[in-house]
Amino acid sequence: MTQLKVLFAAAAMALSVFAAPDARAADKLQGVLSAGKLRVGILTDAAPWGFKDAKGEIAGLDADLAQLLASDMGVKLELVPVTGAARIPSLLSDKIDILIAGLGATPERAQQIMFSQPYAVVNLGVYGPKSIPAATGKKPDNLKGRTVAVAKGTTLDLWLTDNAKDVKVVRFEDTPAAIAAYLAGQADTFAENSAIAIKVMEQNPTKEVEMKFVIRQSPAHVGVRQGEQNLLNWVNTTLFANKLNGKLGALQLKWFKEEQALPTL
Question: What CATH superfamily is the domain 123-217?
Fold first, then answer.
């Protein structure tokens, strides 16, 4: 019996020796540190989160945050453009290491990826001209029968579909297309977050862009693949440190023209 225990112990030790390199190889944090490069998925069509500037370079709050994380990690940064629909698939297929793309946390998404603590917060809502009165209650009764342009598959699309049955939701491939439809008069209103709406106001001063209905606050999170707990722990730690030193607040002021208190998970 004692000899059998010795054999089992020896076998277990041998397995642990062979398994250790695989465990290290599978750890994304160690992989990024070893490679010396952090690949970050980012939107390039959702100013001020992520967009192409006049020089054709990726800019915005998410780009600045990606640079901050790469600097704190001591590695080079590679920004990988992703679309709204391809954000999570790009992460799941290991085309990127982390996702910083104005990403809201939902129970459905949490079945696929893990979310960091919030790094920014905005308001989700419906925007339109002065001729449409603002909602007076918690339901978008002021939008009954009106068209709302929205990027399909987004949190806004899902909320409007489930909660605004009397609103005519018109879906577009991405955020720029939805906003362009509103600006061209093809939709009565558009649904977006307050940071993007502020940018639309700045870029189109002759157009009326006012909040007509507030859906809710929407924190933005960094996304990592399921099981990459070490990487998630590191991201949360550096976000917390940059919240304390004021760098996250400075980024929000820079890009959103306002700073809001970050909720905690």
Answer: Periplasmic binding protein-like II (3.40.190.10)
Q: In terms of Cα–Cα distance, which of 61, 84, 259 is closest to 171?
A: 84
pTM: 0.74
Whole-angstrom Cα distance, residue 116 to residue 82? Answer: 19
CB 158 within 8 A of CB 124: no
What is the SS3 string spanning the chain? CHHHHHHHHHHHHHHHHHHHHHHHHHCHHHHHHHHCEEEEEEECEECCCEEECCCCCEECHHHHHHHHHHHHHCCEEEEEEECCCCHHHHHHCCCCCEEEEEECCCCCHHHCEEEEEEEEEEEEEEEECCCCCCCCCCCCHHHCCCEEEEECCCHHHHHHHHHCCCCEEEEECCHHHHHHHHHCCCCCEEEEEHHHHHHHHHHCCCCCCEEEEEEEEEEEEEEEECCCHHHHHHHHHHHHHHHHCCHHHHHHHHHHCCCCCCCCC
Distance CA 69, CA 33 (A): 12
Give the domain ranges of the chain: 10-121+219-256, 123-217
Burial category of 187 from C-beta neighbours within 10 Å (exposed 0-12, middle 13-18, buried 19 and up): buried
159-175: pLDDT as tens digits = 999 999 999 999 999 89
Classify domain 10-121+219-256 by CATH number: 3.40.190.10
pLDDT tens across 93-111, in order? 999 999 999 998 888 899 9
Closest CA to 129 of 203, 201, 208: 208
